[in-house]
Amino acid sequence: MSEDRELDEIQAIFFEECVEGLGTAEAGLTAFANGDISADVIAGVFRAVHSIKGGAGAFGHNALLTFAHAFENVLERVRGGEIAATAALGQQLLTAFDTLADHVAAAMGKGDIPQDGPALAGLNALLEGGAPEEASSAPAPAPAPEPAAPTAAEA
């Protein structure tokens, strides 16, 4: 068997594992977004994303690798208690999951590499200490008025 064919077969196995991992991650993130912030749920999602990231790196799917790495880092900080596990965070991660799934599809040749800028920025903001936005029915407060510039007589 040629080396290229063997690599293609191994990559096909990786893609099968990606599909399984995406199913696991989606189920876990849906539970997370619905308030199940148990360590088991978070660990299951982490393992799925970690596996996707590892294979992406091994097969040179750099866009998938970059996105999965940021996603994994957020989950690692949630596991470590550095980022609070909240339903709002679960919802934000579930939204980012759609981009992860699109990256996997692109790596499989089933679409273009997604425009992941907003989702990646959201993950990076979490890593830099930003909290997910809580859903609120109250309108945002009005900004404070700017102080008036001093007049010539006051200066």
Question: Please, how many helices?
Answer: 5
Sheet-strand content, in percent, reads under 5%
Q: Give the CA-based shape.
A: globular
Residue share in helices? 55-70%
Q: Notable features of this structure?
A:
155 residues, 5 helices, 65% helix
Account of the 3D structure:
The chain is mostly helical and 155 residues long. 65% of the residues lie in helices and 0% in strands. The chain has helices at 3-33, 39-58, 62-79, 87-107, 117-127. The longest helix has 31 residues, at 3-33. The N and C termini lie far apart (86 Å). The relative contact order is 0.13. The model is unreliable at 134-151 (pLDDT under 50).
Summary, kept brief:
With 155 residues, this protein is an all-alpha fold. Helices cover 65% and strands 0% of the residues.
Topology summary:
Blueprint: H1 3-33, H2 39-58, H3 62-79, H4 87-107, H5 117-127
